[in-house]
Amino acid sequence: MSSFEEAETEETVPCLHLTFYHPGQEERMVFRCLSFGKREQVRADDAAKFGRDSSVCRYNLVDTRVSRVQFSLQFYRKLHTSECGFEIKNLSKKTKLTVNQTELGYLNKIDLPWKCIICFGDYQILAEIQEGECMDYFETHLHLAEAPVLQERCLPCLPSLKPIPENGISPSLILSQGKSPTEMDENEL
């Protein structure tokens, strides 16, 4: 038997992709302590904490408006299944946290949807769960957004803001043909 045949079966690792946005990032560098673009392993029995206090939080946000411990993400296995998930808990006494449209007060927690937006203060975090079988640890993969994640996610949902004329011909089409718009009676069509 070859060593390939004797090797242990590889497990896929659950990964939590987090895309961060703050409007003051350029000037204040609030994310300067985060490692973007590389995966980090977190033990399954550890809570991934986010906040200002680097002695307690694994993910440090450099901002005096952020609580010492803002929130935590805990990995868990769902009862009577092999499925895993994450729960998010608000650990800030002063700032409410929203997950999609659900508002969490201090010590409130919910299951993290497989794709959601976490907001507190001016912070926006797009969270996406990549499933895996590993039970010993999970990975985090941090990304930095250049535009608000709320805006990026909601733009396709918004209806067009341009009025559509009754005749269905766009005024920009008429202008692009070099003709100026003229007023017409609807009966002339």
TrEMBL record:
Residues 49-121 form the FHA domain. Coiled coil: none annotated. It is found in: Cytoplasm. This is TRAF-interacting protein with FHA domain-containing protein A. Pfam families: FHA (PF00498). The lineage of its organism: Eukaryota, Metazoa, Chordata, Craniata, Vertebrata. Belongs to the TIFA family. GO terms for biological process: innate immune response; positive regulation of canonical NF-kappaB signal transduction. InterPro entries: FHA_dom, SMAD_FHA_dom_sf, TIFA.
